[in-house]
Amino acid sequence: METLKADVVVVGAGSGGLSAALAAAQGGARVIVFEKLPMPGGYSLMAEGIFAAESIIQERDYIGVTKEEAFKNHMNSTHWCANGRLVRAFIEKSASSIDWVMQLGVKFSKVLTLWPGGPRTWHMMEGGGKALVEALAKSAKEKGVSIFTTTPAKKLLIDENNRVSGIIAQEKDGNDIQVDTPVVIIAGGSYANNKEWIDKYTDLQFEPISIVPMQQTGDHIQMAWDAGAALDGMGVMMAIPAVPGERPTSHLWAAAVQPLLWINKLGERFCDESLGFYFPIAANALAKQKDGVMYTIFDENSKRMLIEHGTDVSLGVFVPVTTKLDQLDAEIQKGVAEGKAFVENSLETLAKKIDVQPKILQKTVHEINQAFEENEDNIFAKNHKYLQPIKKEPFYAVKCTFHIFTTLGGIKINHKTEVLDKGLNVIPGLYAVGNCAGGMYGWDYDVFTTGGALGFAVNAGRIAAENALEYNK
Ligand SMILES: Cc1cc2nc3c(=O)[nH]c(=O)nc-3n(C[C@H](O)[C@H](O)[C@H](O)COP(=O)(O)OP(=O)(O)OC[C@H]3O[C@@H](n4cnc5c(N)ncnc54)[C@H](O)[C@@H]3O)c2cc1C
Questions:
Q1: 282 CA distance to ligand 1 middle (Å)
Q2: Which of 148, 112, 147 is nearest to 128 (CA)?
Q3: Among the atoms of ligand 1, which is closest to the Cα of residue 433?
Q4: Structure confidence by residue, pLDDT tens digits, 190-230
């Protein structure tokens, strides 16, 4: 078996791993990165924007979200299930990480939020996560970091003093490679593609769909557990209601998350549909419905409004707020052929098409029409400005199901990103960052800290590198 030496080995070349690798190399360390896929990037390639508070971009745009506000918002909305010291460390670093990636050539367009008046923390990168990953990988290579692709890390080596002493990975040709190193930073991302674990660690009563099938199976998390790491945050997810098989630019998906009428398989409303603004919270409500399925119901007038006046709720930068859904008619037609959109001239036939009792759908539609007339939703208290009647045929239904963007936990760490064992003792030399680390969230993705998942990867990566450099001194 080939044996190499390094000061720091990083598992996973997403934004978390590459940030850790680059920051460690900038501090003078010899760094090796193992990436199991043929190219770097992971889910970071798909992200649109990154969290920061008090950044130069926010200053430029007169956006006054302070670190303190961001911290309080995050801790309150996670009900202090998150690790306050870790969250504070991440938020404190976030503005400097914007400067750091700008120095690598990343450009920011604007800073967004998810809902009207929400905290604007979501820093949109020109070229999205792909541009960030490319900039990090290029700078890391220039600093001498070796990135081995198609080389999954398999086993941590721990010495008799319980310290990290090395790691074994499997090279492209199937042979093992060993690196003797005092530091391993695990940044292997989520386990969103591990059906068994999703079933085991969540209370979902159905099989969710992963938005990006990418071999995110959690083998790196298992590797840390096998070395004695404690579990943290298993079952926590960033989820969203989505139309199966649709891309984020889809006008059909965009229509389905508008605050129209949402019903479950029983034909009943189950939430205030303006939860569409806060996608992870909408997903929480959907998670409790039969099979994780909902239908968005609207009439010809509402459809015309979406085409002529545009949307209230965005699909990130892909379908921004106020987008006129000019592709909606064509996508509905395609959706009908694919069995996820339905168009009928009566509510009765629409109900039959989606397998709901016609009387129940008619009652639900009557309720929403009455709420519109009375200007008050006395069931779910939806803001009256989003109440729309369902009167003019044809009537439409679009199917949405519970989808996972990513999972948000696995390995227990402290505020220095050091991995902890079950007795909460540090495993010296072992760090974990990004989607595979617990402690950043409570039960779900926090909407107040929009961009926080990518932000946590980058900032925790930098924090891990700083602490690893200190450890290696
Ligand atoms: C469609 C989509 C859009 C998103 N948009 C946003 C957004 O706008 N803002 C935001 O904050 N978050 C967003 N997220 C979430 C965000 O992308 C992730 O939270 C973030 O990228 C996680 O970074 P990471 O470095 O932890 O993991 P990843 O970027 O997934 O990288 C992990 C890497 O580790 C590799 N790996 C795994 N196991 C091993 C192993 N054993 N050996 C070697 N390598 C291994 C993987 O192949 C992968 O390349 C989005 C997610 C998706 C799917």
A1: 22
A2: 112
A3: 26
A4: 999 999 999 999 999 999 999 988 899 999 999 999 999 99
Which ligand 1 atom is nearest residue 211's CA? 53
Residue 92 is predicted with a pLDDT of: 98
Q: Does residue 249 sit in the same domain as residue 231?
A: no
Give residue-wise pLDDT tens across range 282-311: 999 999 999 999 999 999 999 999 999 999
What CATH number is attached to the domain comprising 446?
3.50.50.60
Query: Which of 355, 377, 404 lies at the terminal end of a domain, its last residue?
Result: 404
* Average pLDDT for 88-117: 97
Give the bridge partners for 146, in sequence order. Answer: 32
Strand partners, 116: none
User: Given ligand 1 and candidates 43, 431, 449, which is best to mutate, with the most ligand atoms within 8 Å of its CB?
Assistant: 43
Sequence-distant (≥ 6) Cβ neighbours of residue 461 within 8 angstroms? 15, 16, 17, 18, 19, 20, 21, 23, 185, 187, 433, 434
**Parent domain of 377:** 238-404
Share of the chain above pLDDT 70, in %: 100
DSSP E strands in 61-117: the ranges are 108-112
**Domain match, 190 and 200 both:** yes
What's the mean per-residue pLDDT of the chain?
A: 97
Q: Atom 37 (ligand 1): residue with closest C-alpha?
A: 188
With cut-offs at 50, 70 and 90, classify the pLDDT of residue 138.
very high
For residues 193 and 406, give the distance between their C-alpha atoms in angstroms, rounded to a whole number. Answer: 9
**Atom 35, ligand 1: which residue's CA is nearest?**
12
Ligand 1: which residues within 6 Å by Cβ?
11-17, 34-37, 41-44, 46-49, 152-153, 187-189, 211-212, 219-220, 405-406, 434-435, 451-455, 457
Asked if residue 65 and residue 141 are part of one domain, the reply reads: yes
Instruction: Please indicate, yes or no, whether residues 43 and 32 belong to a single structural domain of this protein.
Output: yes
Residue nearest to atom 27 of ligand 1 (CA): 189
| CA atoms within 13 Å, Cβ hemisphere of 468 | 38
Instruction: Quick: pLDDT tens for 254-265.
Output: 999 999 999 999
Other Cβ atoms closer than 10 A to 181: 23
State yes or no: pLDDT of 365 exceeds 90: yes
The number of folded domains in the chain is: 2
Mutation probe of ligand 1 site: the residue of 44, 123, 211, 407 with most atoms within 8 A of C-beta = 44
For 1-43, write each residue's pLDDT tens digit.
899 999 999 999 999 999 999 999 999 999 999 999 999 999 9
Residue minimizing CA distance to atom 26 of ligand 1: 434
